[in-house]
Design goal:
581 residues; alpha+beta; 6-stranded mixed β-sheet; 4-stranded antiparallel β-sheet
Amino acid sequence: MVTYTAITFAPVQGFIEKSRKLRDLYGASLILSYLSQQLVLYVEKTEGLTLISPGIPTLQKGMPNRILINGYISKDDAKNILLSAWKDILQVCRDWIRDELRDHYRSDEYYWEREWSLWGSHTWEIFQGSGCCIPAAIDDLETNKLCRDWTAVNWIGESSSLTGIDAIAFPGLGAETRKPKNINHDSEKKAIKDFYTHLARKLDNCPPDKEPEGKYIAPNEKLSIPELVKRLITWPKIADLISDARPDSKPLKKLSLTSEIQRKPQPDKNLHGQWTGWFMGDGDQVGDHLTKLSNRDNGDEEIKRFSEVIRHWGEEFDETFAEELRKIINASKGLYKDIPEELGRIIYAGGDDFLGIIYSGNPNNPIRALTAYQWLMTLKNKWQEPQHGLNVSVGFVWVAGSVPQRDILQHCREAEKLAKSLGRDRVTIRIVFNSGQYVQWTCPWKYLDILTKYRDINGKTFAIWEHKGGDEKYYPNWSHIYSDLAQLKSRHAFGLSPNKHYVNVNKDNILINLSCLIDFLDGYFPGCKDDLKQQEKYLVCGNKDPQKVNRINHSAPLMITWIEDLITVGWHLFRSGVNYV
């Protein structure tokens, strides 16, 4: 009987989301890909085992964390492979700190090492499933994932400033003299500050008489051991040391990240905070697709071929992302005086999921909302280039400069989840302000270009650029429809309400109001009336039951909300023309 094995590990999203800097995202992605590759390489060199997915085992970046094998690997073997690689990473980082900061190293070596050993054993959970066929192995894996065996690492004193749930990593951590009753908090704070200042100087190659730039680690940071490791492995020398520690393995990919995103305003440097676009996507019903492939006579080969196709797509997406943005900017004549050198990055694009950022390397010349929207309209066609027959759901977040990065990632996940819950094959655009408030709109990819069909009351249409006495203005003016919407809401017209509580709940009134609202919208979006009326259910909730989505007896209020959100998001994206960034 042929036995198949499916292996994965956790946490993945939680490990990525604990981030403050762009380096944290990259460091987390590098570690996850590296650990997955260790399992893949073990399968590749072990007789009796055949790797089914992921495809392209030599491509480390974006390596998915779910491994499917023709053959049997026990959970203990998988655990040993993954944890040994993780412990090697920890040891290299710990030894580097000890050797490079020896003059400032004040701690009992045994207790410092013990804390790192605890994280080596309790950071990851490994899950394994097996069966006589691929669906059976996957089902067994999903069943085993329901039973968690996570163990927390106990600690004393202050907690990480990034997550607030783990201990701050510094050489005094775990020392025998650190008892809750006699901890000198002032002395400990000084020791922590001194440690991170010396670390920042070393990583920045900063002389003692100057303040470190904090390119890798800022002097005022307080990171836990895993958070510190995520940051350290982005330093090329430490990446080399990790590769040297495992000569029989593939080297840890070095990070070619030269700078952080300058998002937040910096008054001392006269830099305004720039708006940035973050997108997170995931293939729709990939699990069902893999099940169908596995039920075919050559299921192993079909899944392997699919995995290779989707990973090739991720590699190309990563390589051409900035180039596609540059093409859009070049076509936007007059919109940019100078094209920024840095236009964004793909954090990971492995398997069927991806995460990326649209931003400018020059905060004084930021990427415009219009450019981000134009690129977003091309994403669905890019996804379908390999012709794998799958749709994709994406959460796109256009966010103000002062919103913390970890909050942005949470918004991305929520936006993507909303796109899937409202029927899949669509995108949720969420605009997040510095206050944390947001507006959002979910639309099927097929109708995403509706914003380009806007015509204001002056007859100006999308993508008209004019010069008037040296004053550059971009038309049309979305303030016209937005002002009309505000007036209609204040009068509870068409079922609209300022507080989202719809006043006309009678079925007939709702239908009449909705029809009038669509007529109103058609005045600003000529030709959209037929699609809105004929595709009402598809637009607002796909194939789902409107009653379950909105918990009322008719779907009309869903369309009212959809139209209101369309206008609100459109105005916030394009208000004040090109000057809105």
